[in-house]
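Lecture notes, unit on protein representations.

Consider one protein chain, 329 amino acids long.
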Amino acid sequence: MRAAWTGYRSALAGAIEQYLAAKRALGCKFANEDRTLRLLDRFLVDQQIGSIEAINNGCLERFLASRGRDNPRSYNHLLGIVRRLFEWMVDQQMLPASPLQLRPRRETARKTPVLFDAETIRKLLAEAAQLPDNPRSTLRGPTYETIFALLAGLGLRISEAARLQCGDVDLDRDVLQIRDTKFGKSRLVPFGPRLHARLHAYLELRERKGFPHAGGAPLFSWNGRHPISTNTIRNVFREELVPHLQIDIPAGAFGPRVHGLRHSFAVRTLLRWYRDGDDPAARLNHLSTFLGHGNPAATAVYLTITSDLFQEANRRFEAIAPRVKEVAP
C-alpha cells in the first residue's frame, strides 16, 4: 500500500510549494498540477537527488519515462506541467535556465470521445443501481446511480459531483449549488422533476440509514465525513459498469470515459436546440454558463459532430438557403 502523503520532501519542495501558492493566489485550483508535481517530488526523493543543481535534463527525461505516457497528448500534458514549473523558477531567479530541454512529441489526429445515447445512459444507471454493497461501502447502488444521473443529466464535472454537500441540494427551488469549482467559480445548476425525484429519494434513504443528510456533510460518502474520490468513481465506471454496456467503439475514438457523459450532455443540448428551431450560435453562451466554462470557445470543444447533428445542420441550412433555379436545357 502506498504511504500516505506527508508533504513535499525533495530538493524542489520549497519551489513547488511557492509555485502552487502563487498560482492559487491568482484563482487557479491547480489540483492536477499538484498531483503531478507530487509524482516528480517522490521520484527525486527515490533517486536521491539532493540539490536543485543536480536536476538536469537526463533526470527529468527519466522521470517522464517512468510515468509510461505512450500517448503523445498525455506525454505532452505531463511535460507541460513540469516545463511550466521550471519556467516559473527561472522567472523568480531561482534558476539561471530551465534544465528541461525535451521537446513535445508530435501529436497525430486526436481521437474523438465515445458519446452516450439515451438508451446507453438508461442501461448505465440500471447497472449502477445494482452494484452490491461491500464491508466498507454501503448504499453503493443508490449512491452510484445518483452520481451518474447527475453527470449525465446535468453535464457536471466529476469533481463537482464528488464534492457536493447535502446542503448544496435545494429541493425547494430545484437547483444545485456548485461551489468553488474550476477557476474558483461557483454557480447554480437547475434540474428537472426526474432528478428532483432521484435526489429526494436518495436523501431520504441516507436519512433512514442514519447517514448525515443536511448541511455540510458530503452528499456522496461512505463514512459521512469524506467524499468519494474521483478516482474511485472512474474505476467503478470503467471496471464494473462499462463491461456490461456493450458499447461499440467507433474507429478513431478512445474508450468510454466518465467525462464522455459531459460531452454527451453538450451534444444532446445542441441537438435539441436544432430540433426545437432555436439558433444554437445565439444560445451557446447559455450552455457555456450552465457547464461552468469561462467562455463559449471552451464549450465548443465538447460539440463533437455526430451524424444526427450533421443531418440537423443540413436541414436547417436547406430551410434558409435560397432555392437554386433550374436552368432550362
